[in-house]
Amino acid sequence: FSSFLLNLKKDIKTARKFYKEIDIILSLDGERPELELDILTGHKIVRIENKPNMCEANQYLTHIIQNYDSLSEYTVFTQGHPNDHIHDIKLEIIKNIGNDFSTLPSSKIRSLGERDHELLARQFGEMITGKKINKSIWSGGACFMASKKTILKNDISWYKKILENGSSFKDSKFAIERLWSVLLSPNEDWS
């Protein structure tokens, strides 16, 4: 884990103009208690309570809400073991710097079907936005990066609403991980 962060730091330094503009939010779920400092950015690691039905969505939304007025230019949201879902996260971050939103690895718009988690995503998306949601941009592992500009398009109350509704929606973790593109850009047409 530490070598992963050191290598990521080295690779991101090659994109020096962005080095100080990126925060990486790791959803650790209580893992690695020995880590007190994110060796990539020098930020202290803050432990956020894991809500079982929300998993990383709780950490991601809590970070956005708590840091709304002081977000970095880009924030990478990833689970504590990103290589389980992304072959080369370092390359994906560097490839996508400059994009307002990108899943990691990059993905295109996909239809949300009637099966299990896709159906949950449609239901949660429609409940939270009040509109039909039939497509989204997502990739496995709920790993993505977003620009400060994209996050700030929505008022902080929007993220609080998602967190509140997600806390009470059964298995919202499966819905929200497929909806980050929608939740960050709810005014776009996702029907």
Could you name the key traits of this structure?
191 residues, 6 strands, four-stranded mixed beta sheet, two-stranded antiparallel sheet, alpha+beta, globular, 13% strand
Task: Report a brief summary of the structure.
With 191 residues, the chain is of the alpha+beta class.
- The coarse silhouette is globular
Question: Percent of residues in beta strands?
Answer: 5-15%
The number of helical segments is: 9
Helicity range of the residues?
A: 40-55%
- Mean pLDDT, rounded to whole units? 80
For the report, how would you describe the main beta sheet? 4 strands, mixed
Describe the structure.
Helices cover 40% and strands 13% of the residues. With 191 residues, the chain is of the alpha+beta class. The strands form two sheets. It has a four-stranded mixed beta sheet with strand order 1-2-6-3. Strands 4-5 form a two-stranded antiparallel sheet. α1 (2-14) packs parallel to α4 (89-96) and α3 runs antiparallel to α7 (156-168). Mean pLDDT is 80; it is low at 30-37.
List the helices and strands and how they pair.
Elements: H1 2-14, H2 16-19, E1 22-27, H3 56-66, E2 74-79, H4 89-96, E3 101-103, E4 109-111, H5 116-129, E5 135-137, E6 144-147, H6 148-151, H7 156-168, H8 172-176, H9 180-184
Parallel strand pairs: 1-2
Antiparallel strand pairs: 2-6, 3-6, 4-5
Helix pairs in contact: 1-4, 3-7
